[in-house]
Specification:
Layout: H1 9-12, E1 14-20, H2 26-37, E2 42-44, E3 53-60, E4 75-83, E5 85-87, E6 96-99, H3 105-111, E7 117-121, E8 130-131, E9 134-135, H4 136-141, E10 151-164, E11 167-174, H5 180-190, E12 195-205, E13 208-209, H6 228-235, E14 239-242, H7 248-252, E15 270-275, E16 281-288, E17 291-297
Parallel strand pairs: 3-12, 14-15
Antiparallel strand pairs: 1-3, 2-3, 4-11, 4-12, 5-6, 7-10, 8-9, 10-11, 12-13, 15-16, 16-17
Length: 307
């Protein structure tokens, strides 16, 4: 593995909020960020469909190692549902496979409580979920018969903000793994109708909000990279502890250090961050039964490596 001659973590690693526009894939948005930052290592904490827009939480450089810490965050959406028609993809890009009479607005309101709380939800056929070792969308494109297993998700809040049939606007706060396309389908079915999603805007991921996000095409995108230590502390409430300078090398090598090498040891069980005296995140640890193990270790000397 060679050392990259491009900028390392001291400048181009961090977390950035991206406002993905409609009409491009999440992969395309990441590709633009990669080119701007000059690094191969860029990843996000949850994809958005091509027709959708809104917030992508993007980790760059060595901070891609932090992605597992963010994937469980709940999400907020604004969406528009079209009643009377269901498409095979459950979005505006699919083919109509069913039609049904339009419901009344009061029928839609009455159906909402059944879709709140912990519910069982079948993902769309056109999704990236693995079925028999293959992506479901690939099998669906080949017109193969597949059955999507229901999964438990949680809808914390679901409200109709406008009912102007055939279109209805909703606001949604839900757990990870919730498919808004499936929610649209199920709401249509609960009303004795058919439905599909026509627009989707992700407005928040945990305490990250789209108002703080930047366009992926911005040439100064690197100026919006966030310090990972600050993000973990502010968004996830992770406790930060300072490691004495003489132990930093051992931390970078993933070697456990004694509590005496912390300026003050972590006060609670669970995940905590290890910073150097300059406030740079050097590792993420997790305590249990009086011991700790490393969850993430940053590259040594503030440098990142590309494969």
């Amino acid at each position: 593995m060679r050392r990259s001659n491009r900028i390392g973590i001291s400048k181009y690693s961090g977390i950035i909020l991206v406002n993905k526009p409609k009409g491009i894939t999440s992969f395309r948005a990441l590709h633009t960020i990669k080119n701007t930052l000059g690094t191969k290592k860029v990843g996000h904490t949850g994809t958005l469909d091509k027709f959708a827009c809104g917030l992508l939480v993007v980790c760059a450089g060595w901070c891609t190692r932090l992605i597992p810490l963010f994937v469980g965050l709940p999400k907020r959406y604004e969406a528009t549902i079209c009643f009377g028609k269901e498409t095979d993809t459950l979005d505006p890009e699919g083919e109509v496979i069913a039609t049904a009479p339009l419901p009344q607005c009061n029928e839609i309101y009455q159906a909402l409580p059944g879709l709140r709380g912990k519910i069982m939800q079948a993902p769309p056929l056109y999704s990236a979920i693995h079925v028999g070792g293959q992506r479901a969308y690939k099998l669906a494109r080949e017109k193969k018969q597949i059955r999507m297993r229901e999964r438990e998700v949680e809808v914390f809040a679901l409200e109709v903000t406008s009912c102007n049939l055939p279109e209805v606007d909703i606001e949604l706060h839900c757990s990870k793994g919730t498919y808004v396309r499936s929610l649209a389908r199920d709401l249509g079915s609960a009303c004795g109708s058919a439905a599909h999603l026509t627009s989707l805007n992700r407005t928040a991921v945990g305490d990250f909000i789209v108002e703080d996000a930047v366009d992926p095409e911005r040439v100064d995108v690197q100026k919006h990279l966030r310090n990972p230590a600050a993000v973990l502390a502010e968004i996830l409430g992770v406790e930060m502890v300072t490691v004495r300078e003489e132990a930093i090398k051992r931390v970078a090598q993933g070697v456990p250090i004694e509590l005496c090498f912390f300026e003050s040891p972590p006060s609670n069980a669970g995940i905590f961050g290890m910073c150097d005296k300059r406030g740079r995140l050097r590792a993420v640890g997790e305590t249990s039964d009086g011991r700790y193990a490393y969850r993430v270790v940053a590259p040594d000397n503030g440098e990142d490596h590309d494969d």
